[in-house]
Structures are given as C-alpha cells and as structure tokens.
C-alpha cells in the first residue's frame, strides 16, 4: 500500500510538472548587464537588442526595479517606461519588453516593418512551450502620465514551429495556436493582478512556442513620455482539462466541383464566418455562413492544401481540405 501511495505521489508530481510549464524568469529575478544601457532580464528583451534599420535611435527603456508586488517571494520586478525621441520631430517610443525580438524598421508606428518576432534559431529570442495553458496572469502597476484613459497592453501568442510575428502577418496566421490579448488602464499607483484566458481559435493546434510582449500603451507612439509600467510574477494557469479548439459535432467542410461546402449541426450565429488560407498563410477567402445545413461557396483557387477556420460566436473550428 505504501509503495502504491509513493508511486501515485510521484506520478502526480510528474503530471503537475508537465502541466505547469512556465515562461522562463517569469518573476524577473535574474538579470544581465546590470547598470549598463543593455540591462535586461534573462529570457526577456527590450529595444537595446532590437534589429531593424532604426534600432539605433531607440534607447534603454527597461531596468530592474526593487518595487515588487506585495507578497512576492522575489526581490525585483521589471520597469519599462515611454520616452520621447527627437529625430527632427518628436515621436513617443512606448516602453516595451518581450520574450521575442523587436524589429524597428521604421519611424512610422504602424509600418509593418515594426514588429516582435520569435526567432527559433536564437535561444535569446524564443520560449519553448509544449503545453496548453488556460490563461496568463501577471501583477501590474501602471502609471500613465495622462489621465485621459491611456491603456497598457499584454499580447501573448502561442504558436507552432515558425518565426511568428506580432502584429501577425499573413504568413504567421496559419501558425497561431492561441492568443491572450488584454489592454488595461491605470492601476492608480497600486499593484493589481490581471488574468486573461487564451483563445484557442487556431488555425494551428500544435503548441511549441510562446511569445509574450508588454507595452506602456496599446497603440504604438500614442502614449506620453514618462508613462511607467511595472510587471511582476507572470504565470501561466492550467485547468485540469487542457483547453483545445472546439470542434462542432458532426460538422463537415470539404471541396467538391470547384466549391467549398459546409454542413453544420449547430445553430449558426448571425456573424458566423469561414476564413480560408493557403499553405503559405495568405487569406484567400472570407465567407459568411447563412445557414447550418448547407453553405456552398464557388471559388477559383489552385490545386493544393488549404486551412479553414470557422468562427461561430465564441466557438471556433479549424481544419484542412484538399483541392485536387
């Protein structure tokens, strides 16, 4: 009996360890290059090790802080802040840090050459995650300069084996497993805990990497110099049952006679939508589902494998079909 109890206990610990996989250095206790402009927490990155033609213009915007959340077992948190940069005109660089690498390709904030990316070839810029967490939680103390309603942002993407970009481009989309994105206002000078559930809407389903990015404003270059954001004790939360994309029971998507045909067994939301991507991640079609029994869409696409995603209210179904 004692042997059985010991075996069960060891098994429980093993299962718990697997399910409780976390982001490295999530308490921000381990740091590199303290006191230098390149100071950063291990496994996390700021603008000082960014790539891109305009990375030269960005400065130090993260550092170790002894202001940690109440009750923490650690001694430190991370502080990031927004600053004004003069490049002939003034632009606000929001304070940001990420498990990926920043690319600063333009001084135009919305330019697609500005992004964060997982680099699978460089361990400094990726975090492995072979699990399906239910949500991400973290402690935050956010102090914007303006009282006009500025919101900070946490964007966390789980994806398969691909150099995923955030904001995602068409090539990244087919590789997304789940996302948890939340914008949050000033915390009034206090530490609060925030949690956000992952949306497992795919279209990918094989979690291999996670990329978490925090910023002092939800919109690039919209904040104010001096906005400050403290983050501590980032945690991935797991339920007893791993969260998976929802499959609609007895539903079917297939290609026949130059048409995509769907047959659903669930009631269709008024905004139900089917998206189709080619194998290179390019969106080739958006289709509104009109009824549950038989939606037929005539398409003109080359032969090959395609990924579809059906969004019906809060449910999502992903899969593949082949055009001969």
CATH class of the largest domain: Mainly Beta
Radius of gyration: 22 Å
- Ranges where pLDDT stays below 50 over 5 or more residues in a row are 1-19, 241-245
Any guess at the CATH architecture of the largest domain?
Sandwich
Cα shape = elongated
N-C termini distance: 60 Å
Briefly note the CATH topology name of the largest domain.
Jelly Rolls
Gist?
Helix content is about 5%, strand content about 40%. The chain has one helix at about 1-20, and strands at about 30, 40, 60-65, 75-80, 85, 90-95, 95-100, 100-105, 115, 135-145, 150-160, 165, 175-185, 190-195, 210-215, 230-235, 250-255, 260-265, 275-280, 285-290, 295-300, 305-310, 315-324.
Task: Reconstruct the topology from this structure.
Blueprint (H helix, E strand, L loop, with lengths): L1 H18 L11 E2 L7 E2 L20 E4 L11 E5 L1 E4 L3 E4 L2 E3 L2 E4 L9 E4 L17 E9 L8 E8 L5 E2 L9 E9 L7 E6 L11 E7 L12 E10 L14 E5 L2 E5 L9 E6 L4 E6 L6 E4 L5 E9 L2 E9 L1
Antiparallel strand pairs: 1-2, 3-4, 4-16, 5-6, 7-15, 8-9, 9-12, 10-14, 10-16, 11-13, 11-15, 17-18, 18-21, 19-20, 19-22, 22-23
Structural notes for this entry:
By secondary structure, the protein is mostly beta strands. It folds into two domains: 216 residues, Sandwich (Jelly Rolls), CATH 2.60.120; 72 residues, Sandwich (Immunoglobulin-like). 6% of the residues lie in helices and 39% in strands. The protein contains one helix and 23 strands. The strands form seven sheets. It has a five-stranded antiparallel β-sheet, with no helix packed on it. Strands 7-15-11-13 form a four-stranded antiparallel β-sheet, with no helix packed on it. It is elongated and about 65 Å long. The N terminus is likely disordered.
